[in-house]
Amino acid sequence: MTTNTAVLTDDAVLKAYEVLKPIVRHTPLQFSAYLSQKYGCNVYLKREDLQAVRSFKIRGAYYAISQVPADVRQRGVVCASAGNHAQGVAWTSAKMAIPATIFMPVTTPKQKVDQVKFFGGDNVTIELTGDTFDETNSAALVFCEQHSQTFIAPFDDLNTMAGQGSLAVEVFNDAAENGTNVDFLFAAIGGGGLMSGISTHAKAVSPQTTVVGVEPSGAASMAKAFAVGHPQALTSVDKFVDGAAVQKVGRLTYATCQDNVDRLIEVPEGLVSTTILDLYTKLALVAEPAGALSIAALEVYKDRLAGKNVVCVVSGGNNDINRMQEIEERSLIHEGLQHYFVVNFAQRAGALRQFVSEVLNPDDDITKFEYTKKVNSAQGPVLIGVRLGEAKNLNQLLSRLSDFDANYINLQENQMLYRMLV
Length: 422
Prior knowledge:
Blueprint: H1 10-20, E1 29-31, H2 33-39, E2 42-47, H3 57-66, H4 70-73, E3 77-80, H5 84-96, E4 100-104, H6 110-120, E5 124-128, H7 133-147, E6 150-151, H8 158-177, E7 184-188, H9 193-205, E8 210-216, H10 221-228, H11 251-260, E9 263-267, H12 269-283, H13 289-301, E10 309-314, H14 324-334, E11 338-346, H15 351-358, E12 365-371, E13 379-387, H16 394-404, E14 409-410, H17 415-421
Parallel strand pairs: 2-10, 3-4, 3-6, 4-5, 7-8, 7-10, 8-9
Antiparallel strand pairs: 1-2, 11-13, 11-14, 12-13
Helix pairs in contact: 1-8, 3-5, 3-8, 5-6, 8-9, 9-11, 12-13, 12-14
């Protein structure tokens, strides 16, 4: 339910903050000695992963629903989401004792469906509909019309944006109490609701703060909107950073970010993966891919941060443990350590031993080897994974690999084959 006013104001953000103060957790603004030392600045983490539903989405969901007239609210609310927004709406429906119908794609992992059920309890009805989010969203809107219920938008709604912005009020209040000025504020952009709320308050109370929006390289829909002058759907989206993998940003969020965001940064998904592992190893912090975006951006922006006070919003911690293998794989590829090839091997005894002795560096390791003997053929293709001891040794490996088989295929250069074979 979008308000009639088309501009988000700081007064709206402050109103949302007051409504939410007794409802959501005032999450800590934690100084990170590790990240501060790593980047030569003072890094503070806004820990929204510590919310009841482990993400900031609880703020926008609760506030948007709270602004629906009570009699209308009792008829029920509806949302379409496969992630954190669904959990925020479910949690709110249980808190307010109102019915909520949550539409999720059929492809949604069971773990996410179970979480929504857990937070919403008997107040929530889950409808698994459609293979894509667009199909699911359309079904949710039709349901709203048919049942005279209220749609709670995940980002392109002034009340949702204001609710998300309430966390910025906490950031600047806490920073002021500590006598700290905020030089840089980094936060993820998916549909733009979080950044709209944050940037509106930041520019109202601390115009000197540089507000940096961070997007995954495979889903930089706000950068696309900035480039063409209006929201425009991306032709393709890498869904790895699922909390920020939005094909098209909102009309309201685009306009608000245009006014208030100083810089957009794109972060490769591989760097996000490396950051997730680093946070877990060094800080025991479990961040989902979108939650790690703001911290991953420090690596991209590090040359400008020396001696500055930097705030990174850890927007969520709903990371499925079953994804860790994929996260490690993407990290190793990004670091230049993991490589995959299709190589022709002679079909004779000792061919693998020859490959190991003539092609691999002494500290390299074979991580994958798939081969089926071909009848009446002198050679056969082998799918082989190689983990380098050091990334700098790649060129030497490729040179020797070319001598071994001039027609080898580097799967990093052919993403279709990589997805099919690896």
